[in-house]
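To whoever is covering the structure queue this week,

Two jobs came back overnight. Logging them here so there's a record in the thread.

Job A:
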Amino acid sequence: MSQTMTVKIKLRPTKHQRQLLVFSSRVYIEEVNKLVHEMVEWRTNFKKSSKDILAPLNSAVKNQVIRDAKSIFQKVKKEEFEWIPCLKNPIIVWNNQNYSILEDRISMPFIVDGKSKKLSISAIIPTREREMIESATKLGTLRITKKNSKWIAQISLTINTSPSESTKVMGVDLGIKNPAVCVTDEGEVRFCGNGRRNKYFRRYHNYRRKKLGKAKKLKGIRKSQNKEQRYMKDQDHKTSRQVVNFAVSKKVGIIHLEELSGIRQRTRTSRKNNHSLSNWSFYRLAMYIEYKANLAGIQVEVVKPQYTSQICPNCTKKNHASDRLYQCSCGYRGHRDLVGAKNIRYAPVSDGKSLAA
């Protein structure tokens, strides 16, 4: 079992190194955009080599420019040339053979005074990220980009894990009021995350942005959006960690997640839920659960979600829950999300292609 993921490392470049990064990253996206427009104009994915690119970049970086341009062109072609993307945020990419990670630095080649020269940029590598890099079986590309006036190195890596021998299954129901409800096949239950706090935080920032919009304070709106996204991303990380830790503690070998296609249509809406539902990233939470579970050797399977919140776990009759309470004529009573998790636990596995939600 292998898991591909990306680690992010903060860089501390000197003034001269910052100038090189700014210049090289701008040249990089300019060349990518130029190649994409040429391929779109000719409607073909023509062959080019590093010799055909005259920009002041290393040959390995030029080859990466060509690969990125071809990848973008394939997406444009798939959309039948209805839109042509244009890279705006400066980035620069090296393949895994052209950079090295030292104790507190990352070394990669640049063009300096017309010649290729390797430079070492100071980096802050936390213990967890270093352990992941050292345990990786394969390092991928190094992508350096600028975010909020800070330079970030994104390193793709592949980690091999030993699959769990356990056949114990756990169902996980994703929602808004209860971000994740877990039930094992032995009836052990765990509610993960705090949906009420998340909804309050999002409603607060939505209300605040409306006030800032009336005052035409665009900078404040952007700050509010960034703060909300950072908070929700952090909550998804914490919730997924709770789910996986619970699975590990109960010696679970398989986690069942419902297929996300159409989850917003299946979720009941209300005036208070509309904003949260339209902006909630169920897909991100599911992906966090999946990659954390894979690192722990736990297999994740996607199951069909039809009627999982309506079927009685006791007698299999279909009933609609009243608010959060589920009742059946057979006498069964329980939490609606708990019923969904129990049914997801034994639901049939789908083809595994879950759409973003």
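Job B:
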Amino acid sequence: MTTARALFVPADSAGFYHCVSRCVRRAFLCGEDRYTGQSFEHRKDWLEQRLTELASIFAVALYGFAVMSNHVHVVLQVDPIAATHWTDAEVARRWCRLFPRRGPGGHDEAARIDHLQANPERLLVLRARLGNLSWFMRCLSEPIARRANIEDHCTGRFWEGRFKCQVLLDEPAVIAALAYVDLNPVRAGLADRLEHSRHTSIVRRLVELDAQPVQAGSKLQPLLGLSPSPVLSITTAQYIELVDCTGRQWHPGKRGVIAIDAPAALARLGLSADRWNLQVRAVGSTYWRAIGDSQALIDKATAIGQRWLKGVRFAIALELI
């Protein structure tokens, strides 16, 4: 039975989420189609450019992403409260950027902004949409689908009907989801080093760190979008070290456990090496709609009127390690 997403994604409160959109009928979003030999690598740039644009429009903080051959991962914080502090003019400007008018008269953006400001009821709806996770994912997917269908000379669905969404209930869940997303190319055998994992957030962080080494000691911040006060306790350097160490354990020929000299970030997160390794692996399979420790999952189940959530038993076992 499908669970209403509104139970896990409250429209009026901030939260961290891991979202995945997949293509239908084995359609290729990017990469090279092994059956036809046709390359769609350029579509990865479409996704990155669109994510950059949307992060500057919506009330979100984008922490991580990975563009794969037939799906895309996004880790972000949605803050609808931030949108309530925008002026009416700001809301109108952001909406016009999101849906620019094309054709005759499309250049008259000032008149359109004025028209929206004169309609308080419409502005109320638009303000809510700019702080809404589903609208963010919709505005990410639809333009890509249209461009891909035009390029493929076809019509119909390009993405699955619903994107997968996991609410991240605590800091270890956020960090584990970020690491899981950033290591997708490594796990898929497409890269053997973090810096070779193109079209991922970890590459952007490495590039920014090379440009501004002083950022290594600062708290892990979003790549794009809102800049909330630090909510993650580990630094950028600790996160990169953690991802690199985790990735090396998943490389072919390794034993699949974190080395004895585990990164200092694990101690800060209150996790053992074995527990961390299992937690990251569980992001894509063991958990379902929510990720967190056992008490956070139990509290979330109670809040939405359910007796349990998938992953509670695993979380309890994980805490015993």
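Note for Job B: Residues 133-152 form the longest helix (20 residues).

Please reply-all if you pick these up so we don't duplicate work.
Q.
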